[in-house]
Amino acid sequence: MSLVSIRKTEDYRQEAVDRAVALHFEALGVEGDLRPGMKVTIKPNLLTARRPEQAVTTHPAVLLSVVKWLKERGVESITVADSPGGPYVAAALRTVYAVSGLKALEGPFKLNYDTGWREVRCAEGFENRSFNIINPLVDADYIINIAKLKTHSMTTLSAGIKNLFGAIPGLQKPEFHYKYPELRDFSNMLLEIAATVDADITVIDAVEAMEGNGPNGGDMRYMGLTFASRNLYAQDYVAARLMGLEPEGIPMLSLALEKGLFSPEDVELIGDKVQAPETPFKLPDSATLDFMTFVPKIFRGCAHKVMTKILRPLPKLEAEKCIGCGKCAESCPPHIIKMSGGRAVIPTRGCISCFCCQEMCPVHAIKVKRRLRRAK
Question: Burial, 153: exposed, middle or buried (Cβ in 10 Å; 0-12, 13-18, 19+)?
């Protein structure tokens, strides 16, 4: 049985979040996992330097509640670690910690500045033989994964599974986009990372979530919930349903079902009873502009093979908004984006539609349009 704990968490007042986290962990029996001297690593979503109220990163109140709960039970070694988008260097981490509100809370926990990683072998039968995983996750005795609930321009959903992509150091992440340009293959890779990291508990911050062009450029959507589970696959499935999305249409969840990582029939919801909203979460432009949504299901297999060669959602720069920071070029897996005259140039030739450029643009100057794709 896969237990998924859901708690109404009206806002980020510390006492409200403390209560929710305590109820989650009590219901899941987390205290029984703890032992003296253990090293706990907390993996939040620190995608990029954004303020807590922008709903891009894990809210510091949720992280602090988890830390306080651990401290009250004698856990002393607690490290907060993530590899945000862009270079995995100490200077970049300092900026993200400061802007996201974590630096001001440091004391009960340690913020990670170790930018090393180690190769970790995968289970037999995986597509990938190994992954480079950041040191604090490799060294941990216990891992708590704290995700932020958002829609995502490539994967549709960003929650517990997708959050563990941050275990891959820095600019090695775009390399996987290039290696796996097809969404199903990329989604399989995400499942293999999640299994390799093997977080003990996953918490989802969905008090203020994000819809539309997530994970960075979407609109804030109030949900007033937090989730917790030992099975992040089942948890993401439940979260998707409560966003009004179709989980079976999200490749990483349909693959998780195929692989037997969970079964909807074996999911037990505990905690507060909630319903999906009347208005589903707004999908990213990359999904709503995908021509395949207009093709009858019976024809999609054949149509996909032909039409994705010709017509597909692609990034388009709004030049008047571009500030010439180069984040898009830095994060582009096939390295086709160039800077010219203080502005980005984004060609269609060679684009793999991963939308990393849109994800990392700090001023939301990159939109997604349905465009003709030139041959490579």
Answer: buried
